[in-house]
Amino acid sequence: MVRVFDSYGTLIQNFDEHQGQVNAIAWNRNAKPSWDIASASADGTVRLWQLPKVQREVKSSIAKSLAVLQSGGTKIWSLDSVPDEPLLIAGTESGNVILWSGYESMPLGILDGHHAPVWSVSVGPAGSQLWTGGWDGTVRRWDASNAEWMHSGFDVYH
């Protein structure tokens, strides 16, 4: 379950559709967002959510996800969004990095380069580079425009 609180500590929203633990969340960094928060879970899904715009009375409620993005059954450990693009990146237990565009439930692409779970994904400041860190001891830098490695990887353990 994902719970959202206001700055006073009052619960304002529950997101309760995942069937496994929630491992990561990401904010939508687009200028005109169609969703506000994405949550990634061990159930192999990313769910897109919208926060209430204005609340006159503070009441917590349970919201329905706007979209469910599928990983093909593998657990998702990490998540990030690309600034000014409708793109989400997720690191999975299988070692793949999955890219989704907007509300498309099927992946836009799958980056294959890690040999163990991907625990961390991050988008560079300009949004053109993706960085991934895996349990295999490597950090990889990807070119977001063509989904290819920019380097063969950096070995974390020597």
Structure, explained:
By secondary structure, the protein is an all-beta fold. The protein has one domain: YVTN repeat-like/Quinoprotein amine dehydrogenase (Methylamine Dehydrogenase, Chain H), CATH 2.130.10.10. The chain is built from no helices and 16 strands. The chain has strands at 2-5, 11-15, 22-27, 37-41, 45-49, 62-63, 67-70, 76-81, 87-92, 96-101, 109-112, 118-123, 129-134, 138-143, 148-149, 154-155. The strands form four sheets. Strands 12, 13, 14, 15 and 16 form a five-stranded antiparallel sheet that branches. A four-stranded antiparallel sheet has the order 3-4-5-7, with no helix packed on it. A four-stranded antiparallel sheet has the order 8-9-10-11, with no helix packed on it. The chain is globular, with a radius of gyration of 16 Å. The termini are far apart. 31% of the residues are buried. The mean pLDDT is 83.
